[in-house]
Amino acid sequence: GVRAVLACGFERIHRSNLIGMGILPIELPQGMHPDTLRIECGDRITVKAAVDTLGVRTSVPVTIARRDGSEEKFEGRAAVETRLELDLLRQGGVMPMILKRTVAGAIRN
């Protein structure tokens, strides 16, 4: 059920692999580090990144709802570099895209 991954940065191959699986890579803001987020068991992370509004390197709102009731909000950056990557994310990844194209081709024939 993973839909997004938050990190300080991504190597190109890891970023591409995540996108190929339909998972949105999100870069943390400058100066923010996973250790400083102090995420604990029971915290809930919400990412507001509807694929129809997502763009190349767009800002992505992230909210951490703490188990004590407090919230921390910040803006991450979608680590999406091309329109093709956006299309892959919109399709749900490489496999769903291939399946959709195969089924569409079979229906036309």
Protein architecture, described:
The protein has about 110 residues and is of the alpha+beta class. Helix content is about 35%, strand content about 25%. The chain has four helices and five strands. The chain has helices at about 10-20, 35, 85-90, 95-109; strands spanning about 5, 25, 45, 60-65, 70-80. It has a five-stranded mixed sheet with strand order 1-2-5-4-3. The longest helix is centred in the C-terminal third of the chain and has 15 residues, at about 95-109. The protein is elongated. The model has no long low-confidence stretch (mean pLDDT about 95).
Strand content: 15-25%
**Helix run count:** 4
Strands ordered across the widest β-sheet: 1-2-5-4-3
Oligomeric state, counting identical vs distinct chains: single chain
